[in-house]
Amino acid sequence: MSLKVFHIVFISISILLGIFFAVWCLMEYAAENDSFYLIMFVLTLLMTFGLVIYGRWFLKKVKGIQL
C-alpha cells in the first residue's frame, strides 16, 4: 500500500470516527443535558469539517501523482 493510499484511507477513517463521536456526544447531551457534551459535539463537528476540507485539498494535490 502506497503512502498516498494510506493517507486517503486514514483521513476517511478519521472522518467517519469524527461523525460517530459527534453523534454519540449529541445523544449523551440529549440524555444528560450536560453542556460538556454539547461543547464536544460542536468541536468534533468543526474538526471533522476541517478533515473533509483537508481531504479534498489532498486529493486535488495528488491527483496527478502515480501510485
Attribute tags:
67 residues; mainly alpha; 2 helices; 85% helix; elongated
Task: Describe the fold and architecture.
- Helix 1 (3-32) packs antiparallel against helix 2 (35-61).
- The protein has 67 residues and is mainly α.
- It has helices spanning 3-32, 35-61.
- The chain is elongated.
How is the topology of this model organized?
Elements: H1 3-32, H2 35-61
Helix pairs in contact: 1-2
Concise summary:
By secondary structure, this protein is mostly helical. The chain is built from two helices and no strands. The chain has one domain (9-61).
Structural category? mainly alpha
Mean pLDDT: 93
Count structural domains: 1
What is the 3D shape?
Answer: elongated
Distance from first to last alpha carbon: 9 Å
Number of helices: 2
Along the chain, the helix and strand elements come as: HH
Regions with pLDDT < 50 over 5+ consecutive residues?
Answer: none
Approximate helicity band: over 70%
Largest pleated sheet? none
Number of strands: 0
Range of strand content: under 5%
Using only C-alpha atoms, the radius of gyration works out to 15 Å
